[in-house]
Amino acid sequence: MSCCSPAAYGTVFDEREARRNARTYRKRGLDPTAQRLVSFLKAQEEVPRTVLEIGGGIGALQMELLRAGASRATNIELSPAYEAVARDLLADAGLTDRVQRHLGDFAAAPDAFPPADVVIMHRVVCCYPEAARLVSAAASHAQRYLAMSYPRNAWWVRMGLAAENLLLFSMRGIGFRTYVHPPQTILATAQGYGLTPAFQHRGWLWETVVLQRGGGSR
After folding, report:
1. CA distances from 198 to 144, 147, 187, 212 (A)
2. Could you tell me if 37 and 208 are in contact, meaning their C-beta atoms sit under 8 angstroms apart?
3. 61, 38 in Cβ contact below 8 A?
4. Rounded CA gap, 193 and 195, in Å?
5. Regarding beta strands 142-151 and 195-202, do their DSSP bridges make them parallel or antiparallel, or are they unpaired?
6. Of the four listed, 18, 29, 109, 174, which is most buried by Cβ atoms within 10 Å?
């Protein structure tokens, strides 16, 4: 079965949100959580050549990795609202020919997409109700790295997201929810595919982790 309807995602992640994200990226670059993921990958002896990003939005992380030496990237997105903004950013950066963008639920049809050196899910697992299903699909496609960020499983985060779900979504009749999935479930699922944590960081709101085939924790 598919997750939430694309319409629900499009209501939350709309064109206004896409334009706001693009303005922020043009002015300030990546947010700190995304920068941690990209910095780790750029610091490796060989930058991943192929990138598969699930829920990449405007494609900022992909563009940073392409500039750092990646050869091509694929983006799978549920909301169509990002497409026009992403095309403009790619054109401005001269990267249009190196990125393929697709609309759809990756976890519903993972075999439609090829594996990649690195699979990225930045602030994506929290938007999907079936964490193990999504992480399984992503991990199966990660040839070298699986890079993720997700909400910290702390009481203040759970309370904040519960309030957001009630006030912003449920009371307005929007069929979208955010989730705080147990990190142990996320990590155990990825490790079941032969991936080992190579980088972890726990912030006030977000946790970041990069898992590697044959990697070691640090």
Report:
1. 11, 10, 12, 6
2. yes
3. yes
4. 6
5. unpaired
6. 18
Place of tokens 């639920």: 105
pTM for the model stands at 0.91
Q: Count how many domains the chain has.
A: 1
Could you report the per-residue pLDDT of 138-184, keeping only the tens digit for each?
999 999 999 999 999 999 999 999 998 898 888 888 888 889 999 99
Would you call 119 exposed, middle or buried from its count of C-beta atoms within 10 A (0-12, 13-18, 19+)?
buried
Does any domain span residue 218?
no
Is residue 1 one of the residues assigned to a domain? no
In sequence order, what DSSP letters do the residues of 123-172 get, joined into one string? S-GGG-S-HHHHHHHHHHHEEEEEEEEEE---HHHHHHHHHHIIIIIGGG
d(CA 173, CA 4): 14
